[in-house]
Every structure is written in C-alpha cells, then in structure tokens.
C-alpha cells in the first residue's frame, strides 16, 4: 500500500520546502518534486497545508494507579486521542512498586498496553526503590529497549527516592548508556508546607499551589543537575515550570554540562490565576502547579535559547468525579490534567501562529528532539527516506475551539474549554496508514506498536 502526499509545505527540524512524500508500506520511500503516483497509491492533496513529522509526547500517564485511583485514559483511549492531535508516539511511565521488582511492574504495564494501544508507544521505567536487586535489573530494561529511568524527588512514601538511591541509580544507568529523568521537586519541603496548610484549615485547591512554591522546584533541579554532573549520566528534567529551575540548568551549562529540559504545554499557556477561591481550580491541580506569567516568559525564551528541548504534556487525566476525592482536602485531589490531544494544536496556534517560535522549532520541540533524546531517531521524529511514515497535515488557517464535548480523551472536562485556536490537524498517518482523517479514526485498537528505544543521539 502506497500513499502519495502532494504539494505540502514539508517541515523538518532542518528543512522547509514544498514537495511530495511517497510512503510504501510502513515507511517513507521517496521525497521530491512532482513524484509520479504508483498505480496502487492513494493520493492526498496537501496544497496549502503543512506536513510535519508525527508528534512524540514523551510524558504521559495512561491507566496509571495513582493517589488511590487510576488515570482515566487507557492505552486505547489515550493513544487514540493523541492521534487526533497529531501525536503518533507517546512514552508512558511504568511505576515500580516499592518493595517489588522492575520486571513485575513492566509485566503489569505490558498487560494493559499490548494489543490495546491505537498509536505507537514506549515506556520509561520509574525507579521508586533502588536497591541491589533493582541495580541488577537496569541492564535487563535497557535490553528491552527501555533506556530512560524516571525518578521522583517528591511523593515520599509512594514514589520518592532519596539522594543515596539517586547516586546509585545514576551510576548504574551511566554504565549501560541510559538516561535518568527526574520529577525535580523537594518532597520534604512540599510535605511540610502541605502539613502546615492543613493544620491551619487551608484546604482548597489554591493551597496545593501554595504548597509547591518555586523554591521547591529550583532546589531539586539544581541538586539533580549537580548529582548528574558528578556521576556523568545523561540527565533530563521532566515538566520544568519556572524561572528558578531553568536558572539551575543555565548554571549547569556554564560548567559545560548538558541537562535536557522538558516543559509541558500548560506551563507555557496557563497560569496560577486559575487557582481561585472555590473548587474549580481542582481541574488544574497537578504537580508542579501552574506558575506565574514571568515563568511563562522564561519558558518561551528557554525554547528559543535551546535550553528547553521538549514540550510534552504530563497528560494524567482524572474525571471530575475523581477530582472530588479532594473536595475537603486539596492534598487528596488526584494530581494531573488532560492534554494529550491538544498539545500540538495549542503550541502551533499560540507558538507558531503568534510568531513566538518558528515552524522548525515547533517540529524540534514536539517531535525531533524527543526522538533523539529518547533513542528513536531517525526511525521517529523526522521526515526522511526509511523513517516511519508518521506524518501530520495541518491546515494553518482553519480555526476551531477546544471543548470536552468534542474531544476524544476519556475525561468529562477540558482544561482548555473554549480556547480558540488557529490551525487544525486534518490528516494523520501512522506507519504508512491513514490513522485520522477529517476527525475520524481510521485505525483500531491494537494498531499501536511498542517502540524499542536505543541510546541518546542528541
Ligand atoms: N504530576 C502530576 O500532576 N500527575 C502525575 C504525576 C506528576 O508528577
Ligand atoms: Zn549492571
Ligand atoms: Zn512529575
Ligand atoms: Zn508525570
């Protein structure tokens, strides 16, 4: 089966030209002007549209047991929604249970994702209990194509590791050529502030935000960078939100250390004014919380300075009824918000169409950089001969409005309800198949494949 995409403006991280793309089977077979259509080819006219590499969201939590419930998108519903928004590959988090092995956790996640995912997926391994047994399993995970290891510097008692475990993990991961990532916030400091607010009867969602001030993130980001520098491991900070934390990364670059940085779409576009006096703010209770306009400005600048390489989502949706678990106590609100479906269109509209970032920068931060950092390049993350035919067509002029009434995520509210966007994704290909066209899903449950990953190639 071949598909010929004609006359699109084809954009990669290092090129921008009007041309045709021919796919053959699952991959790209030819790129050029006036390519002839093979007899069996489906022809798609992309005149006036942008053609981009399929999006990669390296930070999603699907069907994840967390804070006494499960995130509400399964691997099926979450990857389907992702496809509608041009994200063809996601990297989901496997969570080791403290006192248990990495293998047990991996088997559990494989059980939920295998044969159900609609879009392509991979896994990070979250190491929540680093001990002599876990140490032995690191090489096994790398052999499985799981080359990135997530750490939590917060959520004590469930997910957090201490600095002793962090050093040990980094040393082991370095030996095997992997990458260590961190949810870099100071868990002890946050837990103290939470306890103080609860003791004072300050229980609304706004106190979630006030329990995680900038210092909690800046301190942990600096500590993570320092320990990574000492061990020499490849390091990546997930969901970085604020100026203080990015300044720690800037400081690391001054000693010629490279620390990769991901921010998430919400930290660029939303701010803490959403945490009002009532419970409505629970929609945006996530960790870290939304920040200030000055932090948004720092993050946009960080993208253009090359300090922030990736824009993900930390997609971790909970239905409104699940959010009610924290109706009387902000610390019990399941942390997370839905975004997997709208990352690309939001960033395109607010970033590219408003002139904050170039189309090529857009491709870098939504796809190419994640493919390189997480060991999937050039199979994923670019448009080149032999690469997977994962392609996104955007009509840059088409306007639309985000609403829970029309989204595909399994959650009954939208964090971006009523946001008006310019630029609509019209067609998405995944491995040479039309996966989404004009709002309709064209591939089914189980079409998504597990993507084995290699080493950093950034
Ligand atoms: N933050 C969230 O908001 N949800 C999932 C985990 C996390 O770190
Ligand atoms: Zn080893
Ligand atoms: Zn996190
Ligand atoms: Zn997360």
TrEMBL record:
Residues 50-434 form the Amidohydrolase-related domain. The keyword Oxidoreductase does not apply. CDD domains: D-HYD (cd01314). One of its GO terms (molecular function) is dihydropyrimidinase activity. GO terms for cellular component: cytosol. Keywords: Hydrolase, Metal-binding. Carbamylation allows a single lysine to coordinate two divalent metal cations. The modification N6-carboxylysine is found at residue 150. Its EC number is 3.5.2.2. Its cofactor is Zn(2+). PANTHER family: COLLAPSIN RESPONSE MEDIATOR PROTEIN (PTHR11647:SF1), HYDRANTOINASE/DIHYDROPYRIMIDINASE FAMILY MEMBER (PTHR11647). Belongs to the metallo-dependent hydrolases superfamily. Hydantoinase/dihydropyrimidinase family. This is Dihydropyrimidinase. It comes from Hymenobacter metallilatus.
């Amino acid at each position: 089966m071949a598909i010929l995409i004609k006359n699109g403006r084809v954009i990669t991280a290092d090129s921008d030209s009007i041309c045709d793309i021919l796919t053959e089977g699952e991959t790209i077979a030819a790129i050029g002007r006036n390519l002839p259509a093979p007899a069996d080819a489906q022809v798609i006219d992309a005149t006036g549209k942008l053609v981009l590499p399929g999006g990669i969201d390296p930070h999603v939590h699907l069907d994840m047991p967390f804070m006494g419930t499960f995130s509400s998108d399964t691997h099926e519903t979450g990857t389907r929604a992702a496809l509608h928004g041009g994200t063809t590959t996601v990297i989901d988090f496997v969570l080791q249970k403290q006192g248990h092995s990495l293998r047990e956790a991996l088997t559990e996640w494989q059980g939920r994702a295998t044969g159900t995912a609609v879009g392509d997926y991979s896994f990070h391994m979250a190491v929540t209990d680093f001990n002599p047994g876990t140490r032995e399993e690191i090489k096994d995970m790398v052999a499985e194509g799981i080359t990135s290891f997530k750490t939590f510097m917060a959520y004590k008692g469930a997910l957090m590791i201490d600095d002793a475990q962090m050093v040990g993990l980094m040393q082991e991961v370095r030996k095997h050529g992997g990458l260590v990532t961190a949810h870099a916030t100071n868990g002890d400091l946050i837990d103290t502030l939470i306890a103080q607010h609860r003791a004072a009867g300050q229980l609304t969602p706004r106190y979630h935000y006030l329990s995680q001030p900038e210092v909690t993130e800046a301190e942990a980001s600096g500590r993570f960078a320092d320990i990574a520098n000492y061990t020499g491991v490849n390091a990546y900070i997930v969901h970085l939100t604020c100026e203080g934390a990015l300044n720690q990364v800037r400081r690391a670059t001054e000693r010629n250390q490279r620390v990769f940085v991901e921010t998430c779409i919400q930290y660029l576009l939303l701010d803490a004014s959403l945490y009002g006096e009532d419970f409505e703010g629970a929609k945006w209770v996530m960790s870290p919380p939304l920040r200030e306009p000055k932090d948004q400005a720092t993050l946009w600048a960080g993208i253009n300075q090359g300090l922030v390489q990736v824009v993900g989502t930390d997609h971790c949706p909970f239905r409104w009824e699940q959010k009610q678990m924290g109706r009387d106590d902000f610390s019990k609100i399941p942390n997370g918000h839905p975004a997997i479906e709208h990352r690309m269109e939001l960033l395109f509209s607010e970033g590219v169409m408003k002139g904050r970032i170039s189309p090529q920068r857009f491709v870098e931060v939504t796809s190419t950089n994640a493919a390189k950092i997480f060991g999937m390049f050039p199979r994923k993350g670019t448009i080149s001969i032999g690469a997977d035919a994962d392609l996104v067509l955007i009509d840059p002029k088409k306007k639309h409005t985000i609403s829970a009434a029309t989204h595909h995520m399994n959650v009954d509210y939208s964090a971006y309800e009523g946001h008006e966007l310019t630029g609509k994704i019209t067609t998405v290909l995944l491995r040479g198949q039309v996966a989404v066209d004009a709002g309709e899903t064209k591939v089914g449950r189980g079409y998504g494949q597990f993507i084995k990953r290699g080493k950093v190639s950034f």
